[in-house]
Amino acid sequence: CLCLFLFALQGATIRRDEATGEIFVARVIHGGLADRSGLLHAGDRLVEVNGHPVFGLEPEQIIQILAHCHGTIMFKVVPMTERPVNNQTMLYVRVMVDYSPEQDPTIPCVDAGVAFSKGDVLEIVDQTDALWWQAKKLPSTSACAGLIPSTNFLKRKQREMLWFQAYQPHTCLKASLRLSRRPGTQIAGTPHCPTNCCWDALETPYEEVVRYLRHPNDTHRVIALVGPSGVGVNELRKRLIEMNPQVYMGAVPHTTRPSRSHEESGREYHFISRELFENMAYNNRFVDYGEYRGHLYGTSMDAIKTVQDSGKICIIDIEPHAILSVRTHELRAYVIYIKPPVAECMRQTRKKSQITTNYYTSRYFKDEEYQEMEEVSKKIESQYCQFFDFVIVNNILQDARDQLLTAVKRAQEEPQWVPAAWIRPSAQN
Ligand SMILES: Nc1ncnc2c1ncn2[C@@H]1O[C@H](COP(=O)(O)OP(=O)(O)OP(=O)(O)O)[C@@H](O)[C@H]1O
Fold this sequence. Notes:
Elements: E1 2-7, E2 12-17, E3 23-28, H1 33-37, E4 45-49, E5 52-53, H2 59-67, E6 75-78, E7 91-95, E8 121-126, E9 132-138, E10 146-149, H3 151-164, E11 206-212, E12 223-226, H4 233-243, E13 248-250, E14 254-255, E15 270-271, H5 274-282, E16 286-292, E17 295-300, H6 301-309, E18 313-317, H7 323-326, E19 334-339, H8 343-349, E20 354-356, E21 362-364, H9 367-384, E22 390-393, H10 397-413, E23 416-419, H11 420-423
Parallel strand pairs: 12-18, 12-19, 13-18, 14-15, 19-22
Antiparallel strand pairs: 1-2, 2-3, 3-4, 4-5, 4-6, 7-8, 7-11, 8-9, 9-10, 11-23, 14-17, 16-17, 20-21
Helix pairs in contact: 8-9
């Protein structure tokens, strides 16, 4: 068995070979003192610390020696004969799970661990070790990296955790959680869970990402708005488009419901037969679809592409489970989460707001609907926050619209972290 611990100040960990009693440098923390000195390397054999021979000592005894050292500390080291060639390339990942070194009894040194939450971007600087990689959480001002579990190790930990905890089957957050009022795009119970709708964080805890800036000749990134029903997704989308219809446009949805006298196919909706709709759904032509009051509604890839090909920026609102359908090389969606403020604030800002209960009738919000929105929001966030590129709290409508405008511009004009697979189809996810 190998004992690992950290030379806290020097930025290295050591291990004792239990068979021989020899002490070796296990790893050098990237950017730490030992690394910057260039004198200590993983695999070097430690012989003395300030004149004290360390052979056969327990790691705790070496810590004691170090604790009593003042000023310059001298290490006598036998360098390993064959240094591994450092062929590490920098890797950036977006994390799909939460991790806390404090909760992890297997970490060699808690102080050297990097805590991260879903959606954080990490720069992985060293993957030499099979169990513990070295990484920095971005944005980082520190030159020094810390320890994170390797992909395989993290997967193993997660499986073990699931094994020990009562297994909670993953539930897709479907529209049944919604208040289901959005005329035309309501989806009262998505009929199926498309195979790609749930990201398997267990299989891919780290998603490789790259910095991407849209080339002026590329089509615009699709802007996908997500939020609990009633939060104002539709209102914000409408307001943005009204501000500049030459630049922003929605995708015309498909429906199987009959058209009304004032409606024109291709303008409000594409009115199609159920047979054709089902055929399109079968062939994955919809990014999001479902049934409402006996009729099918959906947003098709082709409708989005039509907007993109016209040179405009396509703004769509989707159910959370459809995020993965738009996070593709083709659409390169920028996902904006519209979050409700706390119920108390909504009571103030929504006093005069009406919600449409069906095509013709409207009414004021009920108090319990604010609570429901808050609860649904928490569920959506816990399951999908790792995919949000931007979050807007929709309290004062005008402010939220301004923030949306800023976010949409940022998506098109500033570099963003996107899945590497969008840029390099060979990249592993
Ligand atoms: N910040 C806000 N302040 C006041 N009223 C708002 C605000 N945001 C939205 N509203 C109002 O709340 C109502 C519901 O908004 P909207 O229809 O956009 O919800 P939604 O998120 O699209 O939900 P659904 O899918 O159920 O339609 C509308 O009357 C809208 O004008």
